[in-house]
Write a structure and sequence with these properties.
Elements: H1 8-20, E1 28-30, H2 36-44, E2 50-51, H3 54-60, H4 71-84, E3 89-92, H5 101-110, E4 115-119, H6 131-148, E5 153-158, H7 168-185, E6 189-192, H8 198-207, E7 213-215, H9 223-228, E8 233-235, H10 239-256
Parallel strand pairs: 1-8, 2-3, 3-4, 4-5, 5-6, 7-8
Helix pairs in contact: 5-6, 6-7, 7-8
């Protein structure tokens, strides 16, 4: 584990550094990593925070996304990344793996991780959790972090758009309602994943009383445009991993075709 994570004071400093980078109109850009080499590459490129992608980490471990990978393996992967870099690490922790808030915070801090994504998808019952139930869970995580003495940075993911919850014309209103409810419960940033059109992004930024995270999928505005729209955080999710795997497949196919990929 890096020196910055060897004691509770070091974790507090990393968490405070991460939280301070969430500024509307000056977004924290996160090319999500999945292992130590990818995390080191992101840090070497000058990015101040390392974020994991649950989909990319799970795939690298041989599992599908959606809490299909064993929690121990996911926390271990995040811990290896945290030990290899100096930057704060925020983990895509899916819906919390069914852990209690105390257990969850203990596992996060034990891995040297100071931030997390927590989504409101219910991977056991299916669908999306009731907003009030999710808000209580986020509040419990905030309280557990306070008891542990580390201001864990909670990025509360809202899945009503990606899960097609309710009529399309009411999803943005519901995302705003959930976002403000989650902020009141102790979240630091709100992540209405899958939103890609400018009018909806603008409505979310204006309606949610805190920093907003947007997913940089191909249909979304560029990071430069998201900056102009007042977004505070931009996540690339599994896209960097997919691009890397595409290159692996290309090189493997070239070798199979007899090409000299090492010198040509």
């Amino acid at each position: 584990m890096s020196a910055a994570r060897d004691d509770r004071a070091g974790l507090v400093a990393l968490a405070e550094r991460l939280r301070a980078l969430h500024v509307a109109g000056r977004p924290l850009i996160l090319p999500n990593a999945w292992d130590v080499p990818s995390a080191r590459a992101v840090e070497a490129a000058g990015f101040p925070v390392i974020a994991t992608s649950s989909a990319a980490v799970a795939e690298a471990l041989g599992f599908e996304d959606g809490e299909q990978a064993p929690p121990d393996a996911m926390f271990a992967a995040a811990g290896r990344i945290a030990a290899a870099v100096q930057a704060p690490v925020t983990m895509d922790a899916e819906a919390g793996y069914g852990l209690t808030a105390d257990e969850f915070v203990e596992r996060m801090l034990g891995a040297g991780v100071v931030g997390c994504n927590l989504e409101d998808t219910d991977h056991r019952a299916g669908g999306v959790r009731d907003a009030e139930v999710q808000a209580r869970w986020l509040g419990e995580v905030r309280a557990a972090a306070a008891t542990a003495g580390v201001p864990l940075v909670i990025n509360a993911r809202i899945d009503v758009h990606i899960r097609w919850v309710g009529p399309s014309e009411t999803r943005t209103e519901e995302a705003i309602r959930r976002g403000n409810l989650y902020l009141d419960a102790g979240a630091d940033c709100i992540y209405p994943i899958w939103v890609a059109d400018e009018p909806t992004i603008t409505a979310l930024v204006e309606g949610i009383r805190g920093p907003v995270n947007i997913y940089a999928r191909p249909e979304a505005p560029s990071p430069a445009r998201l900056t102009e729209l007042g977004v505070a955080r931009v996540s690339f999710g599994p896209w960097i991993h997919r691009l890397a795997m595409r290159e692996v497949a290309r090189v493997a196919a070239a070798i199979a075709a007899g090409e000299d990929v090492l010198t040509g």
